[in-house]
Amino acid sequence: MKKLLLTFILTLIFTNINAQSIFGKWENRDEETNKVDSVIEVYQKDGKAYAKIIEITDQNRQTAVCDKCTGKQKNKAILGMNILSGLKKDGKEWNGGKILDPKNGKEYKCYIKLEDKNKLKIRGYIGFSLLGRTAYWYRKK
Question: Whole-prediction pTM value?
């Protein structure tokens, strides 16, 4: 009985901690249809946040490449591509890194912030954050 109770408590704590983190799997939704178009995994490496595309829902885009990208990302598969790199924790935000938009091949400065346990705000910008665009990712259930 004690083992069962301890297991339940540890599971509850782990679930709550994970739900309050930017790390995990997130759904990116199409702005017009609100349908999930990809799943992105945000992970931590060397104290910084990174993200990669781990699922593309459109079967016709499974083998799509980033033909508009430049440099070493040019013509690389979008599935598995790292699109977020080098963000450092700064209070409640993670900033100082970059995000790549595979649809247009452009890279932007960005910051991310957990709006609530299931909603992540991503702000990509050029120069300073007033000149940019905000997107939201939703925690994959």
Answer: 0.82
Query: Quick one: pLDDT at residue 127?
Result: 85
Q: Tell me the domain boundaries of the chain.
A: 2-139
Q: Do the Cβ atoms of 56 and 78 come closer than 8 Å?
A: yes
3-state SS of 37-77 is EEEEEEEEECCEEEEEEEEECCHHHCCCECCCCCHHHCCCE
Tell me the β-bridge partners of 101: 106
Cα–Cα distance for residue pair 119/22, rounded to 1 Å: 9
Residues near 60 by beta carbon (within 8 Å), at least 6 away in sequence: none
Closest among 24, 15, 17, 13 to 112, alpha carbons compared: 24
pLDDT tens digit string along 55-93? 999 999 999 999 999 999 999 999 999 999 999 999 999
Do residues 81 and 102 make contact, with C-beta atoms less than 8 angstroms apart?
yes
Q: Which fold has domain 2-139?
A: Lipocalin (2.40.128)
Handedness of CA 31, 35, 36, 38 (dihedral sign): negative
